[in-house]
Amino acid sequence: MDKEAKLQKLVKITGLSEESLLEHATFDSQASAICTNPGCDYTTKTEPDQDAGYCERCKTLTVKSCLILADVI
């Protein structure tokens, strides 16, 4: 999994800058997250420290928060 590519995909989907995306996640109780499986771009809101969230599309535990993808947490 390419964490940087998935983070940039999440930035594009949310329409926020990377800085804004990470800032919101840092100071909110929820963070934007994306499935890290190749070919899947399922997004959702999760806990900021989520590193194994459930993907509704893939049915796997592969959803990671933007803070995890950016190596902030």
The share of residues in helices is 25-40%
Tally of helical segments: 3
What's the order of the H and E elements? Answer: HHEEEH
Q: Structural class, judged by helices and strands? A: alpha+beta
Strand percent estimate? 15-25%
In words, what does this structure look like?
- This protein is an alpha+beta fold and 73 residues long.
- It is built from three helices and three strands; from the N terminus they run H-H-E-E-E-H.
- The mean pLDDT is 95.
- A hairpin with a 7-residue loop joins strand 1 and strand 2.
- It has one domain.
- It is 36% helix and 16% strand.
- It has a three-stranded antiparallel β-sheet.
How would the blueprint of this fold be written?
Elements: H1 3-14, H2 18-27, E1 31-35, E2 43-46, E3 63-65, H3 66-69
Antiparallel strand pairs: 1-2, 1-3
